[in-house]
Amino acid sequence: MLGRAQRTWVGVAGVTRGRVKPGSVRRVIANMSADAAPEYEWKVPAKVEDLYPVLSGNKFAGTNRPTAGAQKTEALAVGESGLQLYSLATPNGQKVGIMLEELADANAVAYDAHYTSIGGDQFSSGFVAVNPNSKIPILVDTAPTDKGDSINLFESGSIMVYLADKYSAFIPKDARGRAECMNWVMWQMGGQGPITGGGFGHFFAYAPSSLNRDYPVARYGMEVKRMCSVIEGRLEDRKFLCGDEYTIADMICFPWYHGLRSGGYKSSGVTSATFLSTDEYKNLNRWADEIVARPAVVRGLKVCSNGKGKPWLEEAIEDSASK
């Protein structure tokens, strides 16, 4: 076997029936000295479609495609509560699960949770009618304050701001405090989430194992650590991101870091916590420890998991029935 330093990747790779197509991607193994700089030459194909074959080993290759829209006709299930959540317990889904459970504790807000598999449920006609982008979570408010038609919501940040405003909770009331809170909501949506999940997490854990992942993992891993450092510095003299008040800024940023430090991403037996040295962030871990100790957060992390909307309720019913 050749060592990593002895591998050379040339061109853009695309393989058909085990053969390298002319002008597509090819992998070349060359003998190189251990201290030689690896050679690399990328040939840009005529169209992006020429690159699609290299995605075949991707964990989500079966659902990824370059077009949007419904792939099957199926209505969304609807419960009795005014709020209907369709989600999955990924970090993006957990943000809203935490928010709804916090509202349940603070304001007795009721909601129905519907487990949504990202293996295809997000492409149903009912789901796409709410979110044409086919991403979880989505929320339908069937009892809006204006007493009009249902309000459809998608994107976790949009959902959380809507709920905070509707119930006047977990968002500062003054303009200055609200602006500060919104800064962190937008920072998470535009940076922390996409870089951690779509960047680092994808290449570290889900990309085809045949690929040389060094560059993307280094690029996104460094950026994830920089973002951890941003929050670490912010929390140097603050209990929460916006001061002493626990807000949607904390709820929205917490799940992605919680996933990293709990080893949510694994590759070849190495966890993201070890790989990124998350134990070095003293302030960030103190903040995360305080948040994860909240009962609503414990439940919120489980919303739409194990095939169930609120698994702790259904498990309690099953336990009671078995006695």
Beta-strand residue fraction: 5-15%
Computed CA radius of gyration, to the nearest angstrom: 23 Å
* Global morphology: globular
Mean pLDDT: 88
- Low-confidence runs: 1-34
SS element count, helices? 10
With strands numbered from the N-terminus, the spatial order across the biggest sheet is: 7-6-8-9
Oligomer: single chain
Compute the separation of the termini in Å. 58 Å
Order of helices and strands: EEEEEEHEHEEHHHHEEHHHH
Largest sheet: 4 strands, mixed
What would you note in describing this structure?
This protein is an alpha+beta fold and 323 residues long. The chain is 42% helix and 11% strand. The strands form 4 sheets. A 4-stranded mixed β-sheet has the order 7-6-8-9, covered by helices on one side. The chain has a 3-stranded mixed β-sheet with strand order 4-1-5, with no helix packed on it. Helix 1 packs parallel to helix 3 and helix 1 crosses helix 6.
Observed structural traits:
323 residues; alpha+beta; 4-stranded mixed β-sheet; disordered N terminus
Q: Secondary-structure blueprint of this entry?
A:
Blueprint: E1 7-10, E2 15-16, E3 19-20, E4 26-29, E5 40-41, E6 83-87, H1 91-107, E7 111-115, H2 125-130, E8 138-141, E9 151-154, H3 156-167, H4 175-206, H5 214-234, H6 248-261, E10 266-267, E11 270-271, H7 272-276, H8 282-292, H9 295-300, H10 311-322
Parallel strand pairs: 1-5, 6-7
Antiparallel strand pairs: 1-4, 2-3, 6-8, 8-9, 10-11
Helix pairs in contact: 1-3, 1-6, 4-5, 4-6
